[in-house]
Amino acid sequence: MDRVMWIQRSGARYPGGEGAGIETRHAFSFSGHYDPDNVRFGSLVACNEERLAPGAGFAEHPHRDMEIVTWVVEGELTHEDSTGARTVVRPGDVQRLSAGSGVRHTERNAGAEPLTFVQMWLVPGPGAATDPAYEVVRGIADGTPYALERTEAVLHVRRLVDGERTALPDAPWVYAHAVRGAVRIDGQTLTPGDAARISAAEGLEARAEGPAELLIWEMHAEPGYG
Prior knowledge:
Elements: E1 4-8, E2 14-16, E3 22-26, E4 44-52, E5 57-63, E6 67-74, E7 77-81, E8 86-89, E9 94-98, E10 103-108, E11 115-122, E12 133-137, E13 145-148, E14 153-160, E15 165-167, E16 171-180, E17 183-185, E18 188-190, E19 195-201, E20 205-208, E21 212-219
Antiparallel strand pairs: 1-19, 2-3, 3-4, 4-11, 5-10, 6-9, 6-11, 7-8, 7-10, 9-12, 13-14, 14-21, 15-20, 16-19, 16-21, 17-18, 17-20
């Protein structure tokens, strides 16, 4: 398969969000917006940018058969779920909620400052464990890979200084989301909220144009059902 790269700009995301003080931008078909040509990329089926004003949040709601990974950009995210987890997630932390056969949770901004976070949903493989699970990795180090045990996907967090280069994984599907600053990939510059979807990625790198933060998904499988 030949390499293909498609850039989705921040302004092209689908608007969403319900309730006062909530602003959402969806990268894929989600909730009330359906696009049959944009339902997933590899095992990734959602990449939502969420902005919550102080006091705003999502009431308790269910999930199942999904791996949900959250990255806080600014502010503090208060998370509670039916596994018994009660945590505050801050910038630099990786949060993972494995919904398994079913879990309920709430997310809110209990702080005094605005909250911005990126939430990414991935479909686990067939035969994955069915019990819900929760984990927070505090202050994940730059360049440390975070593998999802229930799917063939790895998250790479890169914080780059001006001019620094980082190799992108060689993988069937690579999704690179710019969190801060600007990065250049294969002749295209990504700014905050932009994402590159790369099929058959091989031999590529990202170069920072000023200080930058980049989330990179390395994926080796598409969703399998049954």
